[in-house]
Amino acid sequence: QVQLVESGGGLVQAGGSLRLSCEASGRTFSTYAMGWFRQAPGKEREVVAHIIWYGGTRYYADSGKGRFTISRDSIKNTVYLQMNSLKPEDTALYYCAARVAGKREYDYWGQGTQVTVSS
User: Fold this and answer.
1) What is the rounded CA–CA span in Å between residue 28 and residue 31?
2) Cα–Cα distance, 94 to 21 (Å, whole number)
3) How far is the C-alpha of 7 from the C-alpha of 49, rounded, in Å?
């Protein structure tokens, strides 16, 4: 019902920056919140940041606080994750997710975009 496509991942040196993009399509009018999550091999998926679609209230996990910024473009139905001062421990597959109105969980996920930070 909601399709998400991430882009912007790549290989970057420690201290560098990347901007991830996630374009939503389908029933985007029902979106309540969108978020970025990441998962490294052998580790659990973890939250990176969330944004409430209307109003733009933002939440950050401690891991990216002060370095990452989540934002959205309502006209383009796109959410971004600006990542600065990247660290090797940021290396993971980054997923975009959407929560629709009336639900408490993120039920729609993109395929992910790989972020690799070298030492």
Assistant:
1) 5
2) 10
3) 17
Torsion of CA 47, 40, 64, 105, to 10 degrees: -10
Q: How far is CA 48 from CA 37, 45, 53, 102, 108, in A?
A: 5, 10, 16, 22, 16
Mean pLDDT over residues 90-108, rounded? 94
Contact 106, 35 (CB under 8 A): yes
Q: Report CA 54 to chain centroid distance, whole Å.
A: 17
Share of the chain above pLDDT 90, in %: 89
CA angle 100, 102, 104 (to 5 degrees): 75
